[in-house]
Amino acid sequence: MDGTDRQPAFSSTPQRFDAIVVGAGISGLVAASMLAAKGEKTLVVDDYAQVGGNHLDWTSPEGYTFDVGSLIFQDDSPLLRHFPEILDHYVPIDPSWGRLNPQKKITTYPISVRDDILAAGPLGLLRIGASVLYARLFRRRMDNARDFARYWIGAHLLWRSGLETYMCRFYGIVPEAIDIDLARKRMLWISEHASIGNLLKKLFKPASVAGPANRQMARPKEGFAKLYDVAVRRLVNDGVAFQLSAGLRRIEKTASGFHVITDSGEFSAKRIVSTVPIPAMERLCQLPSQSPLETITLISLYFSFRGDRGFPQSIIYNFSHDGAWKRLTVYSDFYGAINEREYFAVEVIAGQVNTVEEAEDDFRRHVERNGLFKGALNLEGSQILENAYPIYSKGAAQRADEAIKRLRAFGIESMGRQGAFNYQPTARVSTIDVEMALADLSVQDAPPLKSEMTAALSG
Ligand SMILES: Cc1cc2nc3c(=O)[nH]c(=O)nc-3n(C[C@H](O)[C@H](O)[C@H](O)COP(=O)(O)OP(=O)(O)OC[C@H]3O[C@@H](n4cnc5c(N)ncnc54)[C@H](O)[C@@H]3O)c2cc1C
């Protein structure tokens, strides 16, 4: 990928450590913070040239900074317990969300009573009602994400609102193939907000005016480095060492722990915490990869624009039945326009389109058909991110669990969005997950290694 190549200003490479954390994303930084607090001499190693993991940005030649899609943070995030000094570097924002529905209308996200239900007309309303009733009576069994959504809003509204098509875009596979447990976790809002009872309540009771209790914030205008460099500085002060652009080659078991071999040196430690993709760690440990774990490749398109964009919201989700793009974010609403030019990023899940050129062409044609972005639209740049997030096909969670157990049998503690193949929408969730994983699992708690190894390799 053509990401930034910020070089760390703070890198030191002592050879022996108590713990080595592989991956310097949010999970790796939180793990390092916890290990350092326990007094463990810790090294963080990453092949990336910068910390922050998939919080990745890109700056155009004229100096505008875009990113792959990590847009919203909160001032009550548990991440701030570890790194309180980053709070001052966020930009407070007041974001608004919208959605392009299949009827070519920018409307409320995630569902609009007026535009998705009432606008269907008397016959449409009858069909929506009948399909909900049918689902509640005869489709109670839920095996996948489509079953779950259909049970709550009925097949007709699922299609009419564009939610079914959006789910394909979001998950990278058809909703019938999506694991039911993930659907329950990820789409709780459907049962909470889109049940007919709640929709009726919304219709007759004015919405509460109370805003969220926490403050919404975006990354600094200049990019993530400003945010995470202070976190690194604090960790370094606490005795944590960093080896970025490491060129990880392999990890070997030794009598006293592990030997990590990289292009930039060799390091040893009693303990390894991994936050990188499971297949990457399996390769490093030379363990056979028995569990195909698919991930989404994300194409990010970075545009500047002058003209009439056609909507006031800062974030738009594509719920229409065509167009490969998933979401767009207008950064200039947060950071300011330049000479009346607005700046925004478009996220496209690879599959339907696979190159930047295809994604750009598809986006331009789609917005034109939908009457959006009338004016001068320039592609400023792009990024392609592999392993952006896991594809939660049926059985994937179980395959990931088995792979994590095999790594554990080898002695590696694997966690985080990549390392646990887990649904982690925000830094908040990543922080809590690592806190729980490191609180639960310590080297002393681990079962005897030899028997685990035998079981794992024979299984
Ligand atoms: C599209 C998108 C939108 C997001 N939006 C938000 C948001 O709005 N708010 C928010 O708080 N968080 C957001 N996040 C962040 C995310 O949800 C997690 O909180 C966070 O990225 C998880 O950090 P991690 O350290 O577990 O894993 P990651 O940051 O994914 O990765 C950790 C490490 O794994 C390794 N790695 C990753 N990919 C590869 C690869 N392809 N090959 C080899 N090694 C790799 C790298 O060493 C990396 O440092 C978003 C992320 C993405 C991708």
The CATH superfamily label of the largest domain reads: FAD/NAD(P)-binding domain
What structural class do helix, strand and pairing data support? Answer: alpha/beta
Number of domains: 3
Inertia-based shape:
globular
Major β-sheet annotation: 7 strands, mixed
Instruction: Count up the helices.
Output: 17
Give the arrangement of secondary structure elements.
Blueprint: E1 16-22, H1 26-37, E2 42-45, E3 57-59, E4 65-67, E5 73-74, H2 79-82, E6 91-92, E7 97-100, E8 106-108, H3 113-117, H4 121-138, H5 145-160, H6 163-171, H7 180-186, H8 188-193, H9 196-204, E9 216-218, H10 225-237, E10 241-243, E11 248-254, E12 257-262, E13 265-274, H11 278-284, E14 295-308, E15 315-318, E16 325-330, H12 332-335, E17 342-349, H13 356-369, E18 374-390, H14 396-410, E19 412-414, H15 416-419, H16 427-440, H17 449-458
Parallel strand pairs: 1-2, 1-13, 2-10, 7-15, 13-19
Antiparallel strand pairs: 3-4, 5-9, 6-9, 7-8, 11-12, 12-13, 14-17, 14-18, 15-16, 16-17
Helix pairs in contact: 1-16, 4-5, 5-7, 14-17
The structure holds flavin-adenine dinucleotide.
Flavin-adenine dinucleotide is lined by residues 23-28, 46-48, 53-55, 68-73, 275-277, 280, 298, 386-389, 416-418, 424-427, 430.
3D structure, described in words:
The longest helix has 18 residues, at 121-138. The strands form four sheets. Strands 1, 2, 10, 11, 12, 13 and 19 form a seven-stranded mixed beta sheet that branches. A seven-stranded mixed beta sheet has the order 8-7-15-16-17-14-18. Strands 5-9-6 form a three-stranded antiparallel beta sheet, with no helix packed on it. It has 459 residues and is α/β, with parallel strands linked by helices. 36% of the residues lie in helices and 24% in strands. It has helices spanning 26-37, 79-82, 113-117, 121-138, 145-160, 163-171, 180-186, 188-193, 196-204, 225-237, 278-284, 332-335, 356-369, 396-410, 416-419, 427-440, 449-458, and strands at 16-22, 42-45, 57-59, 65-67, 73-74, 91-92, 97-100, 106-108, 216-218, 241-243, 248-254, 257-262, 265-274, 295-308, 315-318, 325-330, 342-349, 374-390, 412-414. It has 17 helices and 19 strands. It has three domains: 16-54 and 223-293 and 393-458, FAD/NAD(P)-binding domain, CATH 3.50.50.60; 111-204, no CATH class; 295-390.
